[in-house]
Design goal:
It comes from Tumebacillus flagellatus. This protein is mostly helical and 137 residues long. The chain is built from 9 helices and no strands.
Length: 137
């Protein structure tokens, strides 16, 4: 299944087609992942293009499992602000105590979110604030 997901994320798509169809299909593919598929994804995600990573980050809340959380946390080291924001947006779905602890164990994430609050658009600011509220509750 990893190869199927890789082909989907690598495909040239319009923004509309990705958000209308692609992310739904990606979520369905992810729901069929085996342990081996997750390991392959984890091992390869950092080697992919930023656009590929953005598409992945957008749809990584299908089951809010430990693999998805780990991958999102690894993508947060990016210098790409949009990828970082997508990861934070997706992380808002990870509301278990274990997820919150893993996020809070990385204080740089909270620092970077706080740094961005004064520089981003109002919609992004709302996403960042909601993330902080959910993580700290």
């Amino acid at each position: 299944m990893y190869q199927v997901l890789d082909r989907l994320l690598s495909a040239e798509t319009t923004v509309d087609s990705w958000y209308d169809d692609g992310c739904i299909i990606a979520g369905e593919i992810l729901s069929e992942f085996t342990h081996t598929d997750w390991e392959e994804l984890t091992n390869n995600v950092q080697k992919k293009s930023v656009e590929w990573q953005k598409k992945l980050a957008y749809c990584l809340d299908s089951t809010c499992n430990e693999y998805e959380l780990s991958i999102l946390l690894s993508l947060l080291s990016t210098e790409d602000e949009e990828l970082f924001e997508i990861c934070i947006d997706t992380l808002r779905s990870f509301t278990t105590m274990e997820s919150k602890i893993m996020i809070l164990e990385n204080p740089r994430i909270i620092e970077r979110v706080n740094e961005l609050l004064s520089t981003v658009s109002l919609p992004v600011k709302k996403v960042l604030e909601d993330f902080l509220t959910k993580i700290q509750s």
